[in-house]
Amino acid sequence: MPESNAPLDVSRRIHQWRWRRWVLFPTIIALLVVPVPDVLRLALGLVVVVLLYVPFLLNLTGHFLTGYRRR
To answer: 3-state DSSP call for residue 70?
Structure first.
């Protein structure tokens, strides 16, 4: 019976979000260009970083916890 790779399934789903390209990257550019308070800039920057790196971290934890190897 194959092992459960739930973290990897979640990671794949997050990677397939089409809006990521259309929402996150303009948000990054807007944070650099639009004058906003530093607290707001920091908060939005953290949200962007989390949305970009959570799939990568889920992929790593899924790999190490389940022993899953891509072929």
So the answer is: coil
- The whole-number average pLDDT for the span 14-29 is 67
Q: What are phi and psi of 17, to 5 degrees?
A: -65, 120
Query: Tokens for 21?
Result: 């390209």
Domain boundaries, the chain: 6-66
Whether 54 shows a pLDDT value over 60: the answer reads: yes
The closest of 55, 52, 43 to 24, measured between CA atoms, is 52
Phi first, then psi: give them for residue 18, nearest 5 degrees. Answer: -75, -25
> What are 70's two structure tokens?
């891509």
B/e letters for 16-27, b = 16+ CB within 10 Å, e = fewer, are eeeeeeeebeee
